[in-house]
Design brief:
globular, 16 helices, mainly alpha
């Protein structure tokens, strides 16, 4: 199951409906296999079942969301229970398979991802670590372990695992992306681990992002993560950020993403004193979900334009 359900299930358990835009996100396809091996066929069937369950759960969420928006109401508890029962069935398939085929590395990797997507991080870690022990040359196992350590603020272990994944496979943009993001988030730890100063760590992160973008030039999330880094520079690199968000705009997949980028562009326009540019970018933002952010930027723009001696907030 993809990481898509992490936020969606979290929102359900918190009692809030996920947005329809999130529910409509695409589910990645499973590659077709060509084998007569009964074990591999069984594993492949579990992957298909996992994928089908994800699509089914997303459908339930969309239906519940539509009904609630129409004033029909819904039982959050009933929906959560229905989802949990559906996912428990897939979990049992995975568990039964790895119990019978404990040395199947790909199954352990997939099972770990399924568990992680359903907020069972410790159980996921055990599956990924078992996969690493079974096949130390498998870069996906190291990358997944890096994700676990990063999410649990164990930065040094995350760096070590991501470096190992990249040493084993330099052709996966997600490995560069993951290490870049972790370096950015844990810059102090990175300084100690890599024996670099703050600026060098920042530039190392940007370099990894650029390599990932070069390999995956249509990935909007990747571009967005890269562009946001420039806010964290000391001082912020406004012009480089403006260029990065402009590039992100070119690969935005829908109007929601495009309008989000326009807000970022307007924010930077404000900071560099381009008030006409800020107004132009804010004018094209119409999505109600951005109303509060847009209003705040408009107030800052009015204040800055009325008193050019005061920097915008």
């Amino acid at each position: 199951m993809s990481a898509l359900l992490i936020g969606l299930l979290g929102a359900l358990l918190a009692g809030d409906a996920p947005s329809s835009a999130a529910n409509a996100a695409a589910v990645s396809a499973i590659p077709v296999i060509n084998t007569n091996d009964p074990v591999e066929k069984e594993y492949y069937q579990i992957m298909l079942d996992d994928d089908a369950a994800e699509k089914e759960v997303l459908g339930w969420m969309n239906s519940a969301d539509s009904l609630a928006n129409a004033g029909g109401g819904r039982s959050q508890l009933t929906l959560n229970l229905r989802i949990q029962q559906r996912l428990d069935a897939i979990k049992k398939e995975y568990q039964d398979f790895v119990d019978r085929h404990p040395k199947h590395v790909n199954a352990r990797l997939a099972f770990g991802s399924f568990l992680n997507d359903n907020n069972e991080q410790e159980a996921a870690f055990k599956q990924w670590d078992e996969a690493r022990q079974l096949d130390p040359a498998n870069p996906a196992a190291w990358d997944n372990l890096g994700n676990y350590y990063g999410e649990n603020a164990q930065a040094s272990n995350a760096f070590r695992c991501y470096d190992k994944a990249l040493a084993l496979n330099t052709n996966q943009p997600v490995y560069y992306h993951n290490l870049a993001a972790t370096l950015y988030l844990f810059r102090d730890d990175a300084q100690r681990y890599y024996h670099l100063d703050g600026e060098q760590v920042f530039d190392k992160s940007l370099g990894l992002y650029r390599q990932a973008i070069k390999m995956d030039p249509a990935n909007f999330i990747l571009y967005s993560d890269y562009a946001e880094c420039f806010y964290g520079a000391k001082p912020p690199r406004w012009q480089e950020g403006l260029q990065a968000w402009s590039e992100a705009l070119k690969v935005a997949r829908n109007e929601v993403e495009r309008e989000g980028v326009y807000l970022h562009l307007a924010r930077i326009n404000l900071h560099v004193g381009d008030y006409d540019g800020a107004r132009k970018n804010l004018d094209v933002v119409t999505n109600a979900n951005y109303a509060k952010l847009k209003s705040g930027l408009e107030k800052n723009l009015a204040a800055a334009a009325g008193n050019t001696s005061a920097p915008p907030k």
